[in-house]
């Protein structure tokens, strides 16, 4: 399956997402803050990054923007998984380069379905 990086500072959410992805057959790694997440994107070259928005050291939006500006990893698919629910938040995420946006709390089946759709894109 796919190499997926989960960047999430909430240990419970991180554990749940990683468990669901591994059960679906994916190779999953993680980072618990934005700066570590960006470094991991640049070194691991995952096919998909699942990003929280509100994290220490660097927000998910900042990570998203940095990935889109980096010629080595700009094609990495990005799914924002966040509690930020305002319409303006969704717009800002897509303007920063997110490919998909899912609100917390989330449905695991929906998360996996959207991941499959993102991974199927060329």
From TrEMBL:
Any one Gene Ontology BP term = phosphorelay signal transduction system
- Record has Transcription as a keyword: yes
| Spans through the membrane | none
Domain of life, per lineage: Bacteria
Record-linked SUPFAM superfamilies: CheY-like (SSF52172)
> Which keywords, in A-to-Z order, does the entry hold?
DNA-binding, Phosphoprotein, Transcription, Transcription regulation, Two-component regulatory system
Q: Which terms does the record give in the GO molecular function aspect?
A: DNA binding
Residues annotated with 4-aspartylphosphate modification:
52
Pfam families, per the entry: Response_reg
Report the residue ranges that make up the Response regulatory domain in this protein: 3-119
Keyword presence, Repeat: no
- The name this protein carries in UniProt is Response regulatory domain-containing protein
